[in-house]
Each structure stands twice: as C-alpha cells, then as structure tokens.
Design a protein that fits this description.
Number of helices: 10
Organism: Falsiroseomonas algicola
CATH superfamily of one domain: Outer membrane lipoprotein wza domain like
Radius of gyration: 40 Å
Shape: elongated
Strand order of the largest sheet: 1-20-19-23-21-22-29
CATH class of one domain: Alpha Beta
Number of strands: 29
Protein name: Polysialic acid transport protein KpsD
Main location: membrane
Family: Belongs to the BexD/CtrA/VexA family.
Membrane topology: Multi-pass membrane protein
Length: 575
C-alpha cells in the first residue's frame, strides 16, 4: 500500500509498463481522477488513498524514512557520546563582572546610597545627597524625607510628592538614585575562589557568584544555593529555574550577607537523540524520568531509552520506551541514552532519467518495484522502459567488499608465489608491477551498486524497494557503443541487419590485444551477455575483451576476474 498522492494527479503522460506489459502503457489519470487505473493484466489499481506521495529533493529527514538524527539540526557540530558537561556550567564562563553604578528599578534604597534631586520652575535647585543612617535625605526648604526601603523605581514619585507639599504645582521635580553603596558579601562553599567580595547592593546573587569564580561544576550545587543573613537563611536559589524560565528571587544583598554553595547533589546524565546533552543535578535522592525528559528535551525521532547505572552495588541496565521512562525513578550516576529504535514506515526512492513528474517518491516499506513503476509517468517515445535499473547503496557496499577481497587475494598471490626459475621470476616481477599499479587504481574506484531488474522480455523483477534506492530510466537511443580492444571505439548507428562482426569492423576491427570471438554485450539495464550469439540492440554496449596469453601472465585468471568485478560490477535477478 502506498502513501497519499501529492502531485501525481498533475501528470498526464503514459506510465511505465508493469511486469506483464512490454509495449504500450496505460495513460496516467487526469487531474480530476481520484485513482489511477492499473495496467491491463498487471497490478490492480490502487484506491484514492493509496497513491504515491511525492517529496522535495534533498536529504531525507527521519520522518521521511531517511537517516536518523542523533543531534539537533541547529547543532551539527556537537560531539556524540556520553554527556560530560554539567548543565548550567556555562553561566560562569565570562569571568567576574565589573561593579555597576546603575541600580535596577527593583533595588531597595539603603543608607549610604546617593540620590540626585533637581527642581525647576517657580524655584530652582539641584542637590546630590546621601541617605543617612536613619534612612533619610535632606532637601533644602523641604526638610528630611525618608527614602530607605523605597524601590529605586519609586524614588521619583516619592520625592515629587514631598516637594509639592511645600511648593506650588508650577514646580517640576526630577529625582534619581545615582548609585548604591558598596557592600561586602561572603561567598563560600563549593566555589572556585571563596571569600569576601565587594559589590553594589543592587547586584544579584549571580554577580557575586561570578566574582567568586562561579559554582565549581565538579563539586558544587546549582540547585540549592542559600543566602544567609545573621546566621539564618533568607533565600534559597535554584539556578535551573533561572536557566529554563528566567526566574531569580528578588533579594537585596546587605553588608555581611553570606552566599553558600553546598555540595553537589546526585547527578543523572542524558545523551543520544536529545537537544540538551548534559549532566543534570537531582534536587533529592532520585529524579523522576518525566523531569529528565523535560530537561533533556528528546528529539522527535527518539522513541526509546536505555538506562544504565548501579543498583545495590551491581551494574544495572534497562530498556524502556519514552512513555515508560516518565514513570521511572532515576538515581545518582544513572545515564539515560535516548535512541530511535522504531524503523521508519516508509522508504524514500529517487527517480532519474527520462521521467515526467516528481523525482522523489515516498512509499511504504513493503512496496515493490513493479508497483511503483505503475505510477511513474514517462514519455514512451523517449524512455527506454526495457533498460530500467536500480542503483542501491547496499549493493554498492557489497560490491566494494567483494572487489577489495579479490584485490587482497591477488596481492597475496602476487607476493607469495615461488618462482621455479630466473626467467619465470623476471616475468612475475614484470607482471607484479603491472598488477600492483592496477590494484592501486582499482581501490579508488567506487562501485555504482547497479541492480539489474529487467529481463530480456522487458518484464521487471518484483523486488522490494529499499530506502535510498534510485530508479534510473534510460532514454531511448539509436546507437550501439563499441568499446574495449577495438581500433577506434565509437558509437555506431544501430541497423536491424548488422551482425556482431559488422559493428567490430565499423570500429576499425580488433586491436592487437583483441581476442577473436571474445565479445560481451552490456544492456542498458546493466545485464551482461558473455559470448553473445545475437547482435546488440539500440542502447547496448559491445565490448571486445582483451586476449591474455597465459605464457606471459601467470595471474591471468585472477586479474581477469578482478577486471570483471571492478569494471562491470552488477547484480542480475533471474526471472
């Protein structure tokens, strides 16, 4: 069964022949047709919801049945493997901040802070005053005004109301907190440089932690930082809340406050198909799997997880789905690897050559070549439907392995064979140089992975398609390519009455190394015909094979096999 169509209704050219159709193909549906009609005697027509889906060109995503992502798209350079970085460590990588002279609006004014006041209109005055120990500032002609405990953002409203109690409404007032007094705050515990640090009372706990070198990522806690005042805790800070949602407790630090960073809590690691590949700190003794999922943010392709750790002093491992992981209690030093363990339900197949319509098709994994070809539109005048073949990555890998093994055997035979006489040794030394040169070039050759799927009658093999397959539809040509050991390799116009020898003669005859009757035909589909008895067809390649004298070349058979495997590597399906 195939996926719903996207663009197939736009194609009106005839489609390819099915397994039993060898000449005229049925017409593809018009744009308003809900479902195509299958070829006569071929695969039954599919329903409206069973047509081929088309896709954009380019790399397939995991949802399209393409490569499975192991890291986020926006972070392609991230190193794969177990997490080694503690979540939150990047907070303190920029060094100690300089003290700021500009208080934030939420800062609470304290004794020692400096306030600027400007009055203009009916009277004019400008004064910069310091908050005294009682929390007051003195304004000439107005008197003392209590400002301690007021937010920095509210100082304008407070001073203006006090001035207007003395002067008329024609007086304008501008008041601003210039700078907060410096305070000394102790930062201790698991930080890099504990001690007393000076700064503004308006600065946050993060600023003082940064002055102390930050939380030690190997020993300190990011989730239970305590601010003590007078020996009692006045605030507890979880930096994860700041990292994830920007929440930071509003606290004005005072002279003599102590910021304590306790020892690091239990740690749980997340790696694999996640956006956040980090070590996460646990607030208690265990962490619910649902919290790790929230922190690690698995990729959409992640379906399962592997939990590794220690239970009762014994190694522990568990395989679970993402949904089941949410209910698991994770313990200190557990590592959870998120993976994609569900095979894609579809395959992505490309179509190249003489085609009409989309170049990429998405189909169910059990779709066969013949079924798919019924829904690929072509121009029957231009397309050589008898020469269709597949390019399959898995076949290319197998061909490369076979060729490399053959080259390894040939090299071993080349260097381990014992020469009985000096003359034979000289011959073998000469051939060893020739073969070694060929092997070095052959190792750089990449097989194309051609899969022959059409028999001599033009019927396709009902092969199940694999992801990444490329269907190649050659164009019709009226020539025969004559190559190999001929005097003038060239393309010759095909004529129905010409014989094998006629084509060889038109190419100048056999070259000096050409062997009598040692010919081979390679069809457009990739099928090889050794020692042919019938003349080639349009689009075929006629190859004159070399004659190798076994008296001069001791490794003739192995070398000939290697030439066939590397230069003509293909698979044939017998029907």
């Amino acid at each position: 069964m195939l996926l719903p169509a996207v663009a197939r209704a736009q194609v009106s050219a005839p489609s390819l022949p099915s397994r039993t159709t060898t000449s005229t193909a049925p017409a593809a549906p018009a744009p308003t047709t809900a479902a195509p009609s299958g070829p006569s005697g071929g695969i039954p027509a599919l329903n409206a919801g069973d047509m081929i889906s088309t896709s954009r060109a380019g790399s397939a995503t995991a949802a399209e049945g393409g490569p499975i992502a192991v890291g986020p798209i926006g972070e392609p350079g991230r190193r794969a493997g177990p997490a080694t970085v503690v979540f939150g460590a990047s907070l303190f990588t920029r060094g100690s901040p300089a003290a700021s002279d500009t208080p934030n609006p939420n800062y609470t004014i304290l004794p020692g802070d400096r306030v600027s006041i400007t009055v203009w209109g009916f009277v004019e005055a400008s004064v910069v005053t310091t908050v005294d120990v009682d929390g007051n500032i003195f304004i000439p002609q107005v008197g003392p005004v209590r400002v301690a405990g007021t937010r920095a953002g509210d100082i304008q409203r407070l001073v203006e109301s006090e001035v207007r109690r003395v002067y008329s409404q024609q007086v304008q007032v501008y008041a601003v907190l210039l700078s907060a007094g410096q305070v000394g705050v102790f930062v201790t515990g698991q930080v890099r440089t504990p001690g007393r640090h000076l700064g503004s009372a308006s600065e946050s706990v993060l600023d003082y932690l940064a002055r102390a070198g930050g939380v030690d990522p190997g020993r300190g806690s990011y989730r239970d930082i305590v601010v003590n005042r007078g020996g009692r805790p006045v605030a507890r800070i979880d930096l994860y809340r700041f990292l994830l949602s920007g929440e930071l407790p509003r606290i004005t630090l005072q002279q003599g406050d102590t910021i304590l960073v306790p020892a690091q809590g239990a740690m749980v690691g997340a790696d694999g198909a996640v956006r956040n590949n980090f070590l996460f700190e646990v607030t208690g003794r265990t962490m619910p799997g649902s919290e790790l999922i929230r922190l690690a943010a698995p990729l959409p392709s992640a379906t399962n997880a592997v939990i590794r750790g220690t239970r009762n002093s014994q190694p522990f491992s568990r395989y679970t789905t993402i949904r089941e992981l949410a209910g698991v209690q994770l313990m200190d030093q557990d590592v959870v690897t998120f993976i994609t363990d569900s095979p894609p339900a579809t395959v992505r197949v490309s179509v190249e050559g003489s085609r009409i319509g989309p170049s990429v098709l998405i189909a169910d994994r059990d779709t066969t070549l013949c079924t798919l070809l019924d829904y690929v539109a072509v121009d029957p005048i231009l397309a050589n439907t008898r020469g269709i073949f597949l390019l399959r990555p898995s076949v290319a890998a197998q061909q490369a392995r076979v060729i490399n093994e053959a080259m390894d055997r040939l090299e071993r035979q080349l260097f381990l064979t014992i020469s009985p006489t000096t003359g034979v040794a000289e011959v073998r030394a000469s051939e060893a140089q020739l073969v070694s040169s060929y092997i070095s070039r052959a190792r750089r050759t990449q097989p194309e992975g051609r899969l022959v799927v059409m028999d001599r009658g033009g019927r396709c093999a009902d092969v199940r398609l694999e992801d990444g397959d490329v269907i190649v539809i050659p164009e019709r040509v009226q020539t025969v390519l004559v190559s190999g050991e001929v005097t003038a390799p060239q393309a010759i116009i095909w004529r129905p009455n010409m014989t094998l020898q006629d084509y060889i003669r038109q190419a100048g005859g056999l070259a000096e190394r050409g062997g009598d009757n040692q010919l081979m035909i390679r069809r457009a589909s990739g099928e090889l015909i050794l020692e042919p008895t019938e003349p080639p067809q349009p689009g075929d390649e006629l190859i004159a094979l070399p004659r190798l004298d076994p008296k001069n070349f001791q490794l003739t058979r192995d070398l000939l096999n290697l030439i066939f495997q590397s230069a003509l590597s293909a698979r044939v399906f017998a029907n």
